[in-house]
Design brief:
- The structure is a single chain.
- The chain is globular, with a radius of gyration of 18 Å.
- It is an alpha/beta fold.
- The protein has 11 helices and 7 strands.
- The chain has a single domain, classed as 3-Layer(aba) Sandwich (Rossmann fold).
- Helix 5 links the parallel strand 1 and strand 2.
């Protein structure tokens, strides 16, 4: 058990975990996406973490589905006028190297200095498909975060902010602070994955060994209402179980769940007791139109 706990020493290690499952997916003949750099950035540690993943997340079906849904949302947003992507807590994400983006399209990553330095070393010599900037910043420091946003958004009119796999490691106060910081006219959309309280409880129980050093926190009874109260409205919501079933990635032992009505994040009173996770795209009243 101690060895399992030690594999994930902090939240940053989960970036390697996600990359390991992107590599597994990329090797499939029917892959939903192709990430030739995923295995490199995952490394031995990422592969070891993936090997210790609990049955509930068999083969990383949820992480693979999340990746595909966010890929599609980014493409959709660019088609709708997105002029920049800001990937906060970017971890080992490699989308700038694999998505079909214009060469001049600005993509800005922000993450902790140690992770940025490691990623720069791992990807040295690789050429992104867009205009990538990688910045070392402690996003937990409000002043540093605001300074980063000022610089990263200079000249933007309809940026998309991505916080994949981030908010559920934060407290509600932290998420509220982040939501307030992102309520800027230059930001058109905020894309993230959210979980309700029932799922956070289930996942913390299932991953109590693996994620003992990186437990989940944020998971309101009604996540969409939480963000709506802060001025952020959901204009796109995809429930992971339904999407995974559509993509033929749902584990066999979970398929019976799809025979029954699925939780609807937009109608929480009917599904507060049912665990659900969704990829959502939010927009704020402050955003330019």
């Amino acid at each position: 058990m101690a060895e399992t706990v030690d594999l994930v020493s902090n939240v940053s290690d989960t970036a390697r975990w996600v990359a390991a499952f992107r590599a597994v997916e990329s090797a499939r003949p029917d892959a939903l996406f192709h990430d030739p750099l995923a295995d490199r950035v995952a490394g031995e540690r990422g592969r070891a973490i993936a090997a210790g993943t609990p049955r509930l997340m068999h083969n990383g079906w949820n992480l693979v589905t999340r990746t595909k849904l966010i890929d599609d949302l980014i493409t959709k947003s660019v088609e709708q006028g997105c002029d920049r992507v800001l990937n906060l807590a970017a971890g080992m994400d490699t989308r700038p190297y694999r998505l079909d983006l214009p060469a001049e399209f600005p993509w800005v990553e922000g993450d902790l200095p140690a992770l940025v330095a490691e990623k720069n070393e791992l990807l040295a010599g690789e050429s992104p498909r867009c205009a990538l900037t990688r910045t070392a910043v402690d996003l937990a420091d409000p002043a540093a975060r605001d300074a980063f946003l000022d610089e990263a958004l200079a000249g933007a009119q309809r940026a998309l902010v991505l916080t994949e796999g981030l908010v559920y490691y934060l407290t509600e106060d932290n998420v509220s602070g982040l939501a307030a910081a992102l309520a800027r006219p230059e930001i058109g959309w905020w894309t993230l994955d959210v979980n309700n309280q029932a799922l956070v409880r289930r996942m913390n129980k299932a991953t109590s060994d693996l994620l003992a050093n990186a437990p989940w926190h944020f998971g309101p009874v009604d996540p969409l209402r939480f963000f709506a109260d802060l001025g952020w409205a959901a204009d796109d919501v995809e429930v992971l179980v339904a999407a995974a079933h559509r993509f033929h990635r749902l584990p066999w032992f979970m398929k019976p769940v799809t025979l029954f009505p699925q939780p609807d994040p937009r109608k929480p009173l009917r599904s507060t007791w049912k665990p659900w996770s969704s990829v959502v795209r939010l927009s704020h009243a402050a955003a330019s139109r």
